[in-house]
Every structure is written in C-alpha cells, then in structure tokens.
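User: I'm new to structure prediction. If I give you an amino acid sequence, what do you actually give back? Let's try with this one:
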Amino acid sequence: MEIRVCQAATAVTIAAGLLVAAAPTCHAYIGPGAGMVFLSSFLAIFLAFVMAIVLIALGAFRWVFGLFRRQKARAGAQARRVVVVGLDGCSPHIMERLMAARKLPNFRALGDEGAYRRLRTTCPPISPVAWSTFATGANPGKHNIFDFLRRNPSNYRLELSSTRTREATRRVGLGPLGFSRSCPTVSLEQKGRTFWQVLGEHGVFSAVMRVPISYPPPAFNGVALAGMCAPDLLGTQGTFAYHTTEADEIASYESGLASLLERTGNGHLRGEIRGPESPRLPDHGPLTVPFELTEVGADRATLHLQGETVKLEVGKYTDWLPVSFRVGTFRRIRGITRFMLLDAGEGVRLYQMPLNIDPASPSMPIASPLIFASYLQKAHGDFATLGLAEDTWALNEGILSDDAFVEQCYLFHHERRKLFFDMLGKVRDGAVVFVFDITDRLQHMFLSRNGAGNDPDAIPPVVEKVYRDMDEFIGQVRARLDDDSVLFVMSDHGFGKFTRCVDLNRWLHEEGYLAVDETDAIDWSGTRAYAMGLAGIYLNVAGREAEGIVPPAEAASLRQELADRLMAMEDAETGERPVQGVFEAVRVYDGLYAEDAPDLIVGYADGYRVSWDSVVGKVGEVAFCANPKP
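Assistant: Good question. You get back a string of structure tokens that encode the predicted 3D arrangement of the chain. For your 630 residues, that looks like this:
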C-alpha cells in the first residue's frame, strides 16, 4: 500500500512541477510588461496548486471508492491475503522421495497441516504454456501460448511466442519543427485476463513478480515485475560475452558473443562491450563501450569501465556494474552486468553476463508501473531483470564451470528472496505472487548427471541441495504469515532426464513427409509436415502456410497417419520407443486461438526430447543421437 501512496504523491508533485515549468509559455498570451510576467507566473503557480488539489481530491475519492469496493469484495472472503510461491519445475517425484526421507520438514508440514496434491499440467508441459494457464485459468487455445516459440505461417520463420514487436512511427515536435521517428512497440501476446487483473477490478491489490510470460506487464491494480521472456538490453533472451586474448578461441556461439582482447604497448588489454543497435542509425552496427584491463597476472586483474575501477579475481563474480550507451546528446541506454575473470595467465579470458536492463532506469517496460523497478532498486540495490537470467548457454558452451553456474544461480536467487520478502512485508491485504526459477535451472543442467554412483535414479547432490534450500525458505515464509493469510506452494511441471535427441525433421524426411534441397534446407514445395519448437509438428496446409501443399480436406487423415507412425517410432541404438503420446490440437484445445497451435503435440518417453536442430526448424544429420549438452 505504501507504494501506491508514494506514486500518488509523486504524480501530484510532477503535475505541479510541469505547470510551473510551463509558466514562460504564458507570457505571449498575456503581454510583454513586467507586471504581466509576474501575473503570469503567479497564475501558473496558482493553477498548479489548484491542479494539485484536484488530483489529491480525485485520489482521495478513488481511495474511498476503492475501499468500498474492497470491503464489498471481502464480504465473503476467508482470508485477507493470499501468497503464491511458484517453484518452477519442482518435481513431485523428487519432492515425494525427499519428504519420505524426512529431508524436507517444512514441505512435509505443509502437507500434514494443510494439503498436498499432484496437479495436472498443460499439454505440452512447458513453462510458458503452464504458467499462462495458471495466470488466466484458460487452456492454450484461449491464452494463445503453445510453446516458447511460434512459427509465422507466412514465411516459416520462428518468433518468440510471448511478445510481438511492431514498427510504428511517432510525430515529435510542433508544426513545421516536427518530424516523424520510428518507435517500435512491444505487446504481450498472452490473451485473456489474469486473475490479478480480475482481483484488481474488484479493488484487491496484488504484487505479481517474475511470473513467466508477463513482459511487458499490463497495468492493473497492483505492481508487477516481469519474469521469463523479459529481454536483455540487446532485445534477446540472454546473450553473454566472452573476451579472450586467444584469436583461435573466437567462435560462434548459439547465445553468446566472442571478442578479442587487444594487447596495448604498455602491457594493458583493451576490449569493448557490444550493446544494442543504435535506434538512430540501425545500419551502423551495435553501440559499443570500451574497457581496459591492467595489472594482469597472478590470478588477478583490474577492470576500468566508464570511470569505474574494479579488482578482478579468477573465479569470482564482480558486483553489478553499470554500463551506459550514448544515443545522441541527452540520451543514454543503461544496463548492468557482472564479470568473472576466468584466466589471467599467458592467455587472458573474461566472462561477461548478458546485459540486463538497468532497474534504476529501465529502457524497456519490465515493471508495472515502470517506477516499481526503480523503487526495488533503490530499496535493495541492483538485481537481475532478464527473464532467463541464469546463463545456461554459457555452461552449455563450456565458458562457465559447473561451480560458477551454480554460484550464479544462487546470486540471483538471493536477490529475489529480498524482493519477495519486501512485498510480503508491505502487502498485508491482497495477493502476493512470486515465481522462483532456481529449481528449474539447476535441474535442467544437472538432473541427467548423477555423478559417480551407479544408481540411475539417484538424485544429484546439487539438485537435492536446492530442494532442501527451498524447504528452508518455505519455513521462513511460513514464520512470517499470520492467521489471515493463505499460502500456496506450486509448480508448473515436473522433470525428466534428457539423454537422447529425437530429430523430428530428419525422421520426417526419412519417412517421406519432408523434402530437403542440396543444402539440407527444407524444400517447402515437397514438404507435407515439419517440426518447430519443443513439442510441435505442423502440417504444410495449402492456404494456411505460405507454400502449403496439403489440401485441407486431407489434413485429418495425415494427422492420424503421422500420430500412428510416431507412436511406432523406434530408436535403433537403444531399442526404445521415444514417443509415448501424440495429441491432436483439434482435440485438446478450444478457443479463439486454437487454430494457431501446432497440428500435433509430441509427448516423449523419459530420457528423450526433441533435438536442438528441430527446435529451431533445422534438419539434422541423424534422427537419433546422444544429447551433447549439459
């Protein structure tokens, strides 16, 4: 509640200030005399105070009206506050094993004193799909999120499913001095109303933080901080940087930038941070910021960046450091990042986290209202704003070690604990919804690696530790709740191992459904079905896809034929059947957006997942192979 009062006071102050600042523009309307200048200034100040009084009166009216609505909404309420703690990817299989072993006393107490149930998840059981259903209460056919990615049927290109960027022009200036400039707009593609919007319409305040598929967060009666799918400063889902003195290490990474550290005559090293494309000169390449390394040696170095001097030690993360890119005379695009010195010997290697949007001065709408991000930064210091902040790709590419990745996950987790407990302390009447990612990220990277033991069902130590750490956290949450609060702890999906890749596009090609040209690119003129995303197969339907060849009347029979053959698919190397279920979108989804879903959703057996190439619509070399990545 304190946040809203502060915002209202700020709005009044800004309104009064703008009116006072506008006083000189009144002179031409009143006259050139000194008395008129005094009068115009007095009039402007008087009008400012009148406007301030009006705003205060309106604010008071809204508060009284909201109070009435809240009282009405609470007439049959069983609690004054609902707290939802989301643990992304928290597996009921692991949870139950650890509870039975009495290693999770707080989770066990929740089940004993309240209730514990396994929940059904969505089809497919993927974070953006499941959390969208959690938020809206609707199936994917109504909320429009079917995967992390969607294909554009007009050109077969992949796009992020959660947002859409549209080019727009805006008129700036007045009269003949005005000009038009490009102002891209970003919109949230999740449809339907979230439950916190419904609560807000009934006067109930909510703090909703880091729930996936909430960028950009829409306005409602509450505060929000975007989660998964919020971009970095480059507009990507997380692009790390690797700076090295070794030219032969400059490689092409799937989600990273490599750049050369140049040696200068005085023994120093010079590098640059690559930022976003210039909004004024998009054809001139990315904006850059130089940095320098001095005193390199003995596992140490000194970083000089935009006036900051920071001591680096091998294997240790720096604190958040500000990075700003100049855009014109008066404008800067601001971000924050952390560094880790990887090697300071004969070859020097430096890791840089993805450029997070600066919460103190956000250049993109990561919060609602936008000032909420600044409030959190002022109260708790800098924090990760990137939706997928844990740098799984730097670990996949071998830039980060296991220990460095785990430490990074916990750095972010402790930041988020501070934000959560802040909101828990402030919102005494309403809803607090917060999703924690650490359970998901650590299982993604370590669940398939059991260590030295021979037990295939053994829980890796790093995974068991995060469950026990979250159990301790839940105990702290419970200790801060009163009798008028209700606590839900929930997950969006479970977890399985990923040891074998299924290249659906290669399989479709071998089975005669997908054609390729001499470069192994898809030949759409001979393709009846193709795979894109983590679970979907699309038919190349005439009149729907840009180069569709499947007559609509034949689509149903082709879907059934593909489903039967997928279920009979066999991995010759293991003798196992990788697919345990195939679902037709027309049978599992309903709603206005159901027609945008993949035609078939593939469910995999334990240990299998779609291949890395098929996710992005490529055709790999073989239909089955071992998963080469952590």
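You can read the tokens as a compact description of the fold. Here is one thing that stands out. The radius of gyration is 28 Å.
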